Amino acid sequence: IAQRGQLERILCCLSGYSVGTDSLSKSQIPRLSKVNLFTLFSLWMELFPSAEQQKKSQVKMSRLTVKKSGLVVVKNMTIIGLHCSSTDLHAGQIALIKHGSRLKNCDLYFSRKPCSTCLKMIVNAGVNRISYWPADPEISLQNEASNPMTTDDAKLDAKAVERLKSNSRARVCVLLQPLVCYMVQFIEETSTNFDFIQKIAKSQPDFNTDFYTACRQEKIKEYESLFLISNEETHKQILMTIGLENLCENPYFSNLRQNMKDLVLVLATVAASVPVFGCFGFYSTDSQPANETHHQGLPQEIARHCMIQARLLAYRTEDHKTGVGAIIWAEEKSRSCDGTGAMYFVGCGYNAFPVGSEYADFPHMDDKQKDREIRKFRYIIHAEQNALTFRCREIKPDEKSMIFVTKCPCDECVPLIKGAGIKQIYAGDVDAGKKKADISYMKFGELEGVTKFTWQLNPFHTNALEFHDPMTRESKWFFIFINVFYD
Fold it and tell me: TM segments (predicted)?
């Protein structure tokens, strides 16, 4: 036991975080693995908001219940595509249309095990690996008992998928890595203290961060019902049907369920940090012509969805003090076949040291009292810079492009964003106008030619508790009740 404890502490130190602490130090932070980041993105893409998805969460096709799925396309460990099912096409079919032969040697991360229709095409494209979330597959095996024909057809499809898998050069598998120690605690702490939550708490004297706890619990309940199978026996039956019988024995089964629960908990915690609350949202105070498309903001649900993607990226940071994530999307002139509508992914990044550098190559110090020569600022590649560097699509001047950043862009990044032709910035503004020792945020407020949407109260509403979305009025009274209860 003593040796095991010592080994755990050594591994914790090597991973960059401490053990035995009540509150995590900012200089010792855990990181999300890339595999888990891609998995979380696939789950989150399944929830991409659209008018079609609000009307129908499931599509009935040929007696089968086809569940929506999210898909992340990765090449050389870099995301090159984010997709989700539409009412007409599955996520795998959309990937074929969007990427074609460029899928060769790519890794695909699905939020559901793909059906035989999708699998045969993406295997034929020469993909390297197909990973999927080990729960209910795309052709659902959780159908009503009153319709045995539906269940039989779903089982036939599962058998076809297994046969395609066994005869494929691509590796079709489950990739779930356990979270490093204290990862959930760290994400919960940073989400509670995130700028958006703190701004709500400070702007509303009658509220405190208890509303965040209530929101998080609601998200956990919602996402567990979507991505987990509550009954263990039912889960085992589905795993055996989709060819994962080797995972049905303990300790593999219990470990699998725990890893799945942890990832769903992470997703819910991060999603709650950009909440649907009152009149708060992403609004612009710039005086721009309302009739110009490039200045029109996104629907709040989509803006929040993209900002949560940036928040997930921030947990890959190599910066020991500030984790920043950035993601770039653009909007075509007409709606495409993707479940994302006219929007398409351009690139993403997080703050990190230059590619190929070792841990000790550059300074990590950020103490203002230290010698400026041993501070990190001149060596860190910012999230916005990485998103622009590793973009998979060019930014077209005639299309609306937007970048989502988890904090205010600094003076290094603002000219780059404008020079790249990005039309909109969605960000927080806590540091806007401030000048620090080695980094300043003066240019963000002075920026012209790019529309800025910051997290704030809707400037067109005087009543802070009046909801801009009629569908969220019930939530208003729920949060008022929670506040009164805690008081």
Answer: 263-283
65 with 140: CB under 8 angstroms? yes
CA distance 37 to 218: 22
- Closest C-alpha to 136, from 164, 101, 111, 153: 111
Q: Residue 220 sits in which domain range?
A: 183-273
**pLDDT score recorded for residue 435:** 86
CA dist list (Å): 418 to 220, 390, 413, 439: 38, 17, 9, 19
| Lookup: tokens for 471 | 């569908």
369 and 234 within one domain: no
Q: 382 and 317, same structural domain?
A: yes
Nearest CA to 388 out of 418, 427, 363 is that of 418
Question: Looking at 384, 394, 446, 448, which residue is catalytic?
Answer: 384
Q: How far apart are CA 224 and CA 218, in angstroms?
A: 10
384 given a catalytic annotation: yes
Q: How confident is the model at residue 151 (pLDDT cuts 50, 70, 90)?
A: confident
Distance CA 450, CA 459 (A): 19
On whether the CB atoms of residues 416 and 326 are closer than 8 A, the answer is no
How many Å apart are CA 252 and CA 367, to the nearest integer?
44
Give the number of domains in the chain. Answer: 2
Look at residue 392 and tell me if it is in a domain.
Answer: yes
pTM: 0.86
- Which letter does DSSP use for residue 294 in this model? G
CB 203 within 8 A of CB 458: no
At 483, the pLDDT band (50, 70, 90 cuts) reads very low
Judge contact between 118 and 93, C-beta under 8 A: yes
Same domain, 380 and 239: no
Beta-ladder partners of 487? none
Asked whether the bond before 30 is cis by omega within 30 degrees of 0, the reply is: no
Angstrom distance (rounded) from CA 443 to CA 419 = 14
